[in-house]
Write a structure and sequence with these properties.
The structure holds two protein chains of two kinds. By secondary structure, chain A is mostly helical. Chain A is built from 24 helices and no strands. Chain B has six helices and five strands; from the N terminus they run αααααβαββββ. In chain B, helix 2 crosses helix 3. The termini of chain B are far apart. The chains are: A mainly alpha, B alpha/beta. At the A-B interface, helix 5, helix 6, helix 11 and helix 20 of A face helix 2, helix 3, helix 4, helix 6 and strand 2 of B.
């Protein structure tokens, strides 16, 4: 119990800094109270890991005081700034009273949905706390690196270059291990229960971000709760909130990056664009797949800007794109520099395997890939009926999905799925005993998880109902 | 012509009439006895009415199918972090890892014998025994579940059981 509380206290300190930063930046009260909390957690987690990497590059070693004090001082300074600016701004008002009417009472269905979402969230915390770090990637990769960082008081270069530990994927970005090690530093020892709190918090954050973005697009509160419940109750998602894999962190960051870009497209506002850029950057700092997702986000942003070329000046278009690219570069470059300077490479995806070339016979794999996908499509034990619902949305409401803002998310999902599936077509599988079936079995469902919030969002935009007066519309200003 | 128009009006009226409960067909006015007491659009009602049973099923079914999971969870709650690891890793393997953890010096190198290279047990062992490093030229050979294992230029260092023991290599440079 003490371990859990210590872990939560360390994460609370981190989140406080993020929330205050967001409050200071959010002058127009764009974010709701819970949303600020979720975004504050995500932003502070990403910035802390990024800062730790810079610490390492500057030659400092890590310790509890060196990590916790800057956070506390940063929070204190922000608090003073906010006080001087005229007191702490009240959190954003809800979409219900924004209309000027009375706040709607919760219906029985609302209570049921909130209870069901709460049950899933509690279950994720319970699952994370009672089971120690034991799942494969949690011990072979993320948890292992966190332990190594804690014991070495920095990122252990010799460990990353050790050829006996290639299975730990030393080239993978270190956001999750750095955050886990931060919890260890504050706790003063390696404690699984403390660091595993990170993952259900990412899960809860994903739900809050999802709900808030739907609400920002004017969806009815009950409908937002229905779709948030659908997202929370996908068994594979809630399972990944407990096992110590980095998938849930990647899903959270990519979902936030993608959904806030969608909201920015509809509502405008620089803060939303910057938040989207930050979260997309953290996606690339969480896993190697995140780099691909960053590229896809840039393509989607280019599409959005192209669509808005008639309502924005050329200067505004260039500034938006340049800001986004700059944020990504600042967040992603330090780790890429470390990676290339140490010569870290992936033992599965490297120059040799990629250089093995593409043969047309690779298309024979399509049958195996489609077979695997249908096991997921009709796999309610993992996905409930989410893919069936997506299928129904595409067939019945494709017109709604092709219109902004749904088209922004639809394009993103389509590009991600195409890119991921083409990986299975291109990989030469020159290293035995790895083959296509093994690759699909061990990774494909996790890749599908990366777009789960966006897929649920599309279903919501297809079947949900917009409140009168809050219709979705494209913003004129950036 | 008029009949067609009347039918169309009826269809429109039916579509926009207050929704009935999907389960009991009771109108959603007043105090409805069931939870779905709201004017949800039809697609959402259909989605929820299919989704909730599947969701409930996968909450209940694992407990019914494998009641030992519940017992395991209760055991996990009531024990300390070491006990949790024993339950998660397997009692026997965890005992062996703890034995190795006690006997091996902190900055030593080891090789694991008797555990499949791609198995999750190996990943757990490497994690558990760190900062001791796995090596192809190890100082210690950790033998798990292989009573007949012999290694030239090595001597018995510590024994947990006849099939679980540690060998110390006399010449670590040799494979």
């Amino acid at each position: 119990m003490r371990e859990i509380l210590a872990g939560l206290a360390s994460l609370a300190l981190m989140t406080l800094a993020g929330c205050l930063l967001l409050r200071a930046a959010d002058r127009n009260k764009a974010f709701l109270r819970w949303e600020t909390l979720a975004l504050g957690y995500g932003i502070s987690g990403g910035l802390l890991a990024w800062g730790m990497l810079l610490y390492q590059l500057a030659g400092f070693s890590f310790s509890a005081s060196r990590l916790a004090w800057p956070l506390a001082v940063f929070s204190g300074v922000l608090l003073i700034i906010l006080k001087l600016r005229g007191g702490l701004p009240a959190p954003g008002i809800s979409a219900t009273d924004r209309r000027g009417g009375p706040i709607l009472r919760f219906s029985r269905l609302d209570y049921f949905l909130m209870a069901a979402i709460g049950l899933e969230v509690l279950n994720s915390f319970f699952g994370a706390w009672i089971v120690p770090m034991e799942a494969h990637d949690a011990v072979a990769n993320w948890g292992f690196k966190a332990k190594a960082i804690f014991l070495a008081k920095g990122i252990p270069v010799d460990f990353l270059q050790n050829p006996n530990y290639l299975a730990s994927l030393p080239d993978y970005p270190p956001l999750v291990p750095l955050l886990e090690s931060y919890v260890y530093f504050v706790m003063g020892r390696v404690g699984d229960m403390g660091s595993k709190s990170l993952f259900p918090l990412y899960f809860s954050g994903s739900l809050i971000v999802f709900f808030s973005c739907l609400r920002k697009l004017g969806n009815n509160r009950t409908h937002c709760l229905v779709f948030t419940f659908l997202l929370a109750s996908v068994p594979y998602f809630s399972e990944h909130a407990t096992n110590g894999y980095a998938e849930v962190a990647l899903t959270f960051y990519f979902a936030a990056g993608s959904l806030y870009l969608c909201v920015w497209q509809a509502k405008g506002g620089w803060l939303l664009l910057v938040v989207s850029a930050l979260f997309t950057g953290f996606t690339g700092f969480t896993k190697n797949e995140g780099l691909l997702l960053c590229l896809i986000q840039l393509v989607v942003l280019a599409g959005v800007l192209f669509q808005r070329r008639s309502v924005m000046t050329r200067r505004q278009l260039v500034t938006c794109f340049a800001t986004y690219v700059l944020v990504l570069l600042v967040l992603l470059l330090p780790w890429q520099v470390v990676k290339f300077s140490l010569g870290l490479r992936n033992y599965l995806a490297n120059q040799e395997t990629i250089g093995a070339g593409f043969g047309w016979e690779n298309f024979n794999r399509i049958g195996t890939i489609l077979y695997f996908l249908q096991t997921q499509f009709f796999g309610p034990n993992n996905w409930n009926l989410i893919w069936v619902c997506l299928f129904a949305a595409v067939f019945l409401r494709h017109q709604a999905l092709l219109r902004p803002p749904a088209s922004v998310v639809a394009l993103s999902v389509m590009l991600v799925l195409t890119a991921y599936l083409s990986v299975y077509l291109l990989t030469p599988y020159s290293i035995l005993p790895f083959d296509l079936t093994w690759h699909l079995r061990t990774s494909a469902s996790r890749l599908l998880l990366h777009v789960l919030p966006q897929v649920t969002f599309l279903i919501a935009l297809a079947f949900g109902k917009v409140e009168p007066g809050l219709e979705r519309q494209s913003a004129v200003q950036p | 012509m008029q009949a067609t128009a009347r039918v169309r009006v009826e269809v429109v009226q039916r579509r926009f009439a207050p929704y009935n409960c999907l389960i009991c067909q009771h109108p959603f006015e007043g105090d409805h006895p069931l939870l779905l007491n709201t004017k949800l659009p039809r697609p959402l009602r259909i989605i929820l009415s299919l989704w909730i049973p599947v969701w409930a099923f996968y909450w209940i079914w694992p407990v019914v199918k494998r009641p030992d999971r519940l017992t395991r969870n209760l055991a996990l709650i009531s024990t300390d972090s070491d006990g949790r690891r024993a339950i998660a890793f397997g009692e026997n393997f965890h005992r062996f890892l703890r034995f190795c953890d006690e006997k091996l010096p902190p900055q030593s190198s080891f090789r694991l014998v008797g555990v499949d290279k791609s198995s999750i047990d190996r990943a757990r062992a490497l994690y558990f025994l760190y900062p001791r490093l796995a090596s192809t030229e190890p100082e210690y050979i950790l033998v798990y579940g292989d009573s007949g294992y012999l290694q030239p230029n090595s001597e018995l260092f510590a024994t947990l059981s006849s099939s679980q023991f540690i060998l110390k290599s006399a010449s670590p440079g040799l494979p």
